[in-house]
């Protein structure tokens, strides 16, 4: 059966490196799960997806493998990505009519080859019409900005694999930057810090939890200390240690500096009239990275431009992709051409 053979409603997908969100026409967001798959290496059979697979990271035996089929915002493993989408869709529908239409968001820096891979995934799945929209455009629509207006809006969407920076005006992107430094790189920075400074090896899930609980880019009113469990790289035995939010901030500083530098470069490339709009309206932060404590203040301090964290930044792209799905004709201009 084709991937969307069981699907009766048009859908919009935020196919992210970290999470996949699915929006069903007329119903809103109906699925939000990690873009992770666990399968048997011998039989190639699926064992788990989403939240269940994420809990297996670092805990599977040698016959199983847990992977992310997307890297840096694009499909890295075509077959596994298709298998993952099929299972996610099974979770949200019991219908048996084919899908007519699917809207998928992609990084603004996507190559033609990567774009083709996304289209092929959906078309092989049985979708009759496939539309692509860039993540910053979808984010802008999702947070309620009028992307068709003759005024500039700057969006910084910090996902798992990419940070997307774009200035939007009159239904188009006047300039954009897509860097492959985002949430995953922040997590990796924490893992490296423990390895290099504490001789402690920690897992991906542990590092992500540390980032969410105590990660910051500006001094906190009350600095915290948390306990961390891992493996001692010298003795090779389990070990417990403590780390302060100050040390975590130090670990995150490198990739955060790169993100802010990319924002500065985007501002430098912006036309004067649009720059005036941005100074008046501010920069809008979306994506999971927008929740990093103090990031809005740090960007404001280094650029001199007001910064706003979008309401529910984690679902902004999915909500925007859904709005495009609900009114394809109105938003046809903002979608990527074939």
Short key terms for the protein model shown above:
flat; Nucleotidyltransferase, domain 5; Actin, Chain A, domain 4; alpha+beta; 11 helices; 338 residues
Care to describe what's here?
- The chain is an alpha+beta fold.
- The chain folds into 3 domains: 11-138 and 317-334, 2-Layer Sandwich (Nucleotidyltransferase, domain 5), CATH 3.30.420.40; 146-181 and 254-313, ATPase, nucleotide binding domain (Nucleotidyltransferase, domain 5, 2-Layer Sandwich); 183-251, Actin, Chain A, domain 4 (Alpha-Beta Complex).
- It is built from 11 helices and 18 strands.
- The protein has a 5-stranded mixed β-sheet with strand order 3-2-1-9-10, with helices on both faces.
- The protein starts with 10 loop residues before the first strand and ends in a 7-residue tail after the last helix.
- Mean pLDDT is 92; it is low at 1-7.
Produce a short descriptive summary.
With 338 residues, the chain is of the alpha+beta class. It has helices at 50-54, 78-92, 112-124, 135-142, 183-198, 204-214, 245-268, 272-281, 295-303, 316-326, 328-331, and strands at residues 11-15, 19-24, 28-34, 37-40, 46-49, 64-67, 70-71, 74-75, 101-106, 129-134, 153-158, 163-169, 172-179, 200-201, 225-232, 238-244, 283-286, 307-309.
